[in-house]
């Protein structure tokens, strides 16, 4: 009887420890007690090796390494698992070598061993690859591979895309041949990869001037350096010619001088320099002649009528027209007639008659600047985009329509053929085979033009006009156009702001604009990670658009953000814990194993996982009682001990760094706020952090690789060839062809361009 009662009590106690529907009251188990580890022979041998490597002689280190190897051999003979210290010990001894070349060779030998752990092997492989001679050899091979792939792919594409249009095969092959020839002509004497190889050779020679390979490298360096100078000369000449053709004479002069530094007495560079210098000197002479013009006062410049006009211009209440009338009555050849007409035109514009003002300015600007000095000022003002933004707006719209029409009709040939550093007629001949395709592609380019956003230049001048003349003659027209333009460009907030500043929009139109602006503003605010900035933006949206649905949602989000705000939001997903069970296991968080077993009856962790929300508090997302992962998870919070938190963050960092070393897809991205919190957690002072500082909040997420990339992860194929299926809408063609994969550029390639 007593045993039965005890059994019932035990069962009740077990039930009492569980929450409703099988959920545990605590998702954590007790941390296992850990006894102080006692060093064994392998530990002592590793200690002696480290001491010898740091403070002894190379001979001492080698002797201690032999002792460590012997201990490992004895463990293997006794059937014990290896410690993995032998590979690290050899790496420690190799690291004492001061010669980098010898060190890399020893490291390459170490990689041939089978007892090197994967993380150490990856590190050693990276160090071996950092060999200047090896890297130079790889870059030279990549240069040849890139050139070969480009040429072969051109012909492969021409043949493959002619499967359904065999009649066009000769034309496309001819185009491919021309393209290859032009590409060979445009190639620099030294390729990007060869420049990298040159830098590696120079690095090796500087580090090892007495090495046996140095003498052979010096000749290659000299040859490659000459090709580098030829490249710089070619690039400078090409840019100088383009600047000269564009009328940028000063730039052409500088670039021609640069070309002459790389190739002294070069005939073409000398000719470009001479022409650019002649143009610059002619411009300076014209400028000096203009600045040296006499400044004698015109006749009767100091009479009372001229004084009256000056006073009227300076007085805000002055009558400029009345003051100018006597001067205008003197006739078209009278003194100060141009000044009087200019002042009258300005006065007309200030009274709101813009069109009349610019008509008068145009009439004055048509005069001879030699006999009518104000004609030049009127013409400059008329064509100044700041002074006459409406004319600039109209001109930009006209140019935009012309450019769109040119693109629809001519495609890439709208501005002429690409410059290949050849005579212009030859360049036109090179693109002649593509003219049939250009004609057949008019329909597709028309569709592309109609679906693309409008050009931005007219909008700039329209905005400038509204800033200068918000109540001007053309304000309503320009504002209506600008609102439509901003809407078409996806700038709904800007469209609403422009319409709000005007008075020509009805209530229904303004309501539509406000709804669109509020939705876009809400989308932008939700992307902001900093809580304080996000709450501020949401509050502004709620206050600015209170009647819109988005404004009401923003108001709710402000309250939700304030209620759920936490000092940190570092998430560990369930997928990450499943891929890295050590983090969730006894040596890390000590999470209950049934929370990851997939059985909903005993409680299951939601895919959202766990959040570190500041201090020593963790938030667990549990699958809802319905058992459906799509339902809102059930949240549980628990404050853990400093030891458990320190274990967790240490294992998180160690595991992420280890995974990133073995798999670049699992690399841990930088996050200073996360690192600061982890450092405080490891030191046991996470509770003393400033939880009110939004700058210290991290929203980093530890996510599993499969969860991040799906079941099919992006991997580079081991085959050097890709199969490409390509269709052409203009000629309704379809083809398939193999394409050799060109080598990828290294991250430092930008420094060698």
Give a nutshell description of this structure.
With 753 residues, this protein is mostly helical. It has 32 helices and seven strands.
What does this structure look like?
The chain is mainly α and 753 residues long. Among the domains are: 41-130; 304-383; 425-562, no CATH class; 567-696, no CATH class. It is built from 32 helices and seven strands. The protein has helices at 2-16, 41-55, 58-77, 85-95, 100-110, 118-129, 132-160, 169-186, 192-207, 214-245, 249-262, 267-291, 304-314, 320-328, 337-350, 354-365, 374-382, 389-410, 424-431, 435-440, 442-451, 457-468, 475-488, 492-501, 507-526, 531-544, 549-564, 574-579, 581-584, 642-662, 672-682, 705-709; strands spanning 570-572, 605-612, 617-622, 634-639, 701-702, 721-728, 733-740. The chain has a five-stranded mixed β-sheet with strand order 4-3-2-1-5. A two-stranded antiparallel sheet has the order 6-7. Helix 23 (475-488) packs antiparallel against helix 24. The model is unreliable at 1-22 (pLDDT under 50).
| Order of adjacent strands in the largest pleated sheet | 4-3-2-1-5
Proportion in helices: 55-70%
Largest sheet: 5 strands, mixed
- Poorly predicted residue ranges: 1-22
Q: What is the CA–CA distance across the termini?
A: 90 Å
Roughly what is the average pLDDT, rounded to an integer?
82
- Structure class: mainly alpha
Give the total of beta strands.
7
